[in-house]
Amino acid sequence: xxxxxxxxxxxxxxxxxxxxxxxxxxxxxxxxxxxxxxxxxxxxxxxxxxxxxxxxxxxxxxxxxxxxxxxxxxxxxxxxxxxxxxxxxxxxxxxxxxxxxxxxxxxxxxxxxxxxxxxxx
Amino acid sequence: xxxxxxxxxxxxxxxxxxxxxxxxxxxxxxxxxxxxxxxxxxxxxxxxxxxxxxxxxxxxxxxxxxxxxxxxxxxxxxxxxxxxxxxxxxxxxxxxxxxxxxxxxxxxxx
Lengths: 121, 110
Fold this sequence. Notes:
Chain A has 121 residues and is an all-beta fold.
């Protein structure tokens, strides 16, 4: 059974930094592109970032480019999101998500339960 | 990276069919057969219902079906049931090798 468990969400002041983690199990983590998607309360889902199976390719939404960094450690079956210069508009549930087929990032099949990041003074 | 356009809400009575549209551009929906649909109940993670325009994952009811024409994709739910009441989101692969989501549609079963 695929399991994705996010952690690291907290209440943090604007301008602060935070690192989210996602522990994966139930599949061969090192073969799959992984994504971060966020959902702000009352708003729509927003794709945030992806990283290829080997970490060689990363992509970011314009809204987080230059502030967020995605990374992975295949030896630990873990995905990370380093978040810097946080803004109030970054407040959201952050979901770790698995690509549906190996190597490709064209769609997502499994999602974690999310971790809440609140940016507030 | 503009969001795909979905109606804010749709409704239907038990047993009826409803269709939710998802409109994008030739750089996303129209350019690739990688449209997915997700169901999200309050406080829960999204669940994949349709992938690659019209394919159902194992375990998803055949009451759910997908279609695409040009830059618009659609999700049809037939034989509406109370448990179908949820938010539904479309997503598409985009030319920038990223994903884009729709604004979400709240389905109310009357």
